[in-house]
């Protein structure tokens, strides 16, 4: 949901890319979010096979509630680290994410 909050109109494949989740996991999650009223899917005007996903007002409200909690958790994770250490951690984590995205889809 946070990926859609930051980047409206993503497809399920795009959500998988941004989150690093397997396409079947994303498919089940999107189906649940649509059924629960947090997300709506619209046909893409240029590609009929693609569905553009958007948060509903209910989904936006939930993101608004969750974001401050996630920011606090992020602050807690970095507590006690020097600014240079936190920067190095973020750089290393970004490199790991790039590596994982390059893996073949075998799972």
Entry keywords:
globular; mainly alpha; Arc Repressor Mutant, subunit A; 107 residues; two-stranded antiparallel sheet; 2 strands; 5 helices
What does this structure look like?
This protein is mainly alpha-helical and 107 residues long. It has one domain (2-101): Winged helix-like DNA-binding domain superfamily/Winged helix DNA-binding domain (Arc Repressor Mutant, subunit A). 63% of the residues lie in helices and 9% in strands. The chain has helices at residues 2-6, 12-19, 23-35, 57-78, 83-101; strands at 39-43, 51-55. A two-stranded antiparallel ribbon has the order 1-2. A hairpin with a 7-residue loop joins strand 1 and strand 2 (51-55). Helix 2 (12-19) packs across helix 3. The two termini are 23 Å apart.
């Amino acid at each position: 949901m946070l990926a859609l909050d930051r980047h409206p109109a993503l497809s399920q494949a795009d959500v998988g890319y941004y989150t690093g989740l397997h396409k079947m996991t994303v498919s089940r999650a999107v189906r649940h979010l649509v059924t629960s009223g947090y997300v709506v899917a619209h046909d893409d005007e240029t590609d009929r096979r693609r569905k553009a996903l958007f948060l509903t007002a209910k989904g936006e409200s939930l993101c608004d509630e969750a974001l401050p909690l996630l920011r606090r958790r992020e602050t807690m994770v970095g507590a006690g680290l020097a600014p240079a250490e936190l920067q190095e951690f973020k750089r290393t984590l970004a490199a790991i994410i790039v590596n994982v995205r390059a893996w073949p889809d075998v799972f």
